[in-house]
Amino acid sequence: MRPLARPPRGRAGGRATLSLLALGLEPQAGQPRHRQLYAQVREAILSGRLAPGARLPSTRALAASLGVARNTALAAVEQLAAEGYVATRHGSGTYVSSTLPEAVLEARGATAPAAEPAAAERRTLPPPRRPGPWHPAFAHGLPDVSAFPSELWGRLVARSWRRPTAAMLLGRDPLGYRPLREAIAEYLRVVRAIACDADQVVITAGAQQGLDLAVRVLVQAGDTVWVEDPGYAGTQDALRGLGAVPVPVPVDGEGLSIAAGWARAPGARMAVVTPSHQFPLGVTMSLARRLALLDWAADGRWIVEDDYDSEYRYTGRPLAALQGLDRAGRVVYVGTFAKVLFPSLRVGYVVAPPALVEGFARVRAALDGYPAMGFQPALAEFLASGHFAQHVRRTRLLYAERRALLLGALERHLGGLAEAGPAAGGMHLVAALTAEGERRGTGTRETGTRGTGTGGGGAFDAAVAERVGRAGLLVAPLSTYYARRRAARQGFVLGYAAVPEERIDPAVAQLAAAVKGEG
Prior knowledge:
This protein is an alpha/beta fold. 42% of the residues lie in helices and 13% in strands. The chain folds into three domains: 15-113, Winged helix-like DNA-binding domain superfamily/Winged helix DNA-binding domain (Arc Repressor Mutant, subunit A, Orthogonal Bundle), CATH 1.10.10.10; 172-372, Type I PLP-dependent aspartate aminotransferase-like (Major domain) (Aspartate Aminotransferase, domain 2), CATH 3.40.640.10; 390-516, Aspartate Aminotransferase, domain 1 (Alpha-Beta Complex). Strands 4-11-10-9-8-5-6-7 form an eight-stranded mixed beta sheet, with helices on both faces. Strands 12-13-15-14 form a four-stranded antiparallel beta sheet. It has a three-stranded antiparallel beta sheet with strand order 1-3-2.
């Protein structure tokens, strides 16, 4: 992390900080004192009462002023440090971080380009272990599992099951393990500006089951549902499997086109969207579109917000979720831990509007009773103790570096033939073929050395993906994500999170050779 600037004299340091915080702990608050202290200092940072670089009093002085044991103050400060709100300089003191976590950026606005602190902090981290050969470039939707703190996770799992409670052994709650739901609600309130409490959180076996539950609760057979075009094919499959009728609605630079949705299916019952980082194009839904979609839903319709990789944003301020703007209770928020931690975890969640919680619990109980307890207690501790926030920060720096390398390689090897789509967040980006790239593809097809057609399996990008696939690259052709083939753009969906740095440039060179018809 970049060294913090010397704090200003007066308000930002020493005793002045104590009066600035106006701290007070309540013995009967129903929460440990160190958690109360942690929450109050964090709120002071989020609200701006403690600015970046402000010096906190020593844990000894803090404990004395509050009349608590020093360990109480120490535990609170350690939690704040684990989540990135403060940083300790040996021999100098503890200061509010100049590289603030996402919740602070959302509340206060970024004050410096993201790349500078990210690069500096990256150098302080130990070199990550490299993923095994089963991580091909450029598989999307995969995290770098070698960066996951497996030893810590193993200790948490073992500790949680050493003396299991009756609730852990019996399960039975269709909504899931209560402490995990509380930890998720707290995390979402702070980081994603989501209005919720633990009673609205439903633990699922991943995002796909969350969508399945929402459709079962809210949609009848024959109902039409807006889906993004291009978009994730699994969404349409899930809808069709439950008797609903997916209606592809085009996505442009502002996200899902509400006007096109009205024109194509005015009687739609639901819309399924990825507003923070649209899959696969990567665009962010504009505020105007978000408000228009919420206005559409307020008249008795529903929105499912899939926020599948919102943790990773590399430029600008982190974005609040669509659900946080909802005042009519029409948004069902779906998230997952599988893409941030490791895929086999198979734990996701739904945040349901209060009026729908009973319906979700009833449907969940009818399907499989309640979620498997296995990893829930350990995950609850992983979240509540700040390990999740720390892991996200570390992997965000790692993935940002790989994203920069991929953008540079695309410019070197495919400049003029493909251009990278929005790359402000996520774990993948799109390299869309330019007019020249499409012309190259058409010329190659005319010689009979590539597939034929202009969309779907016969598109040039699909033929290139098939060719490089035989050489060990896993490249998803963009055209295959379009339901309306005539409108399909061609290009490549390139995941970079799990690709080692040294593999990126040669893999892009290999892809470029296939696009150019070389080799």
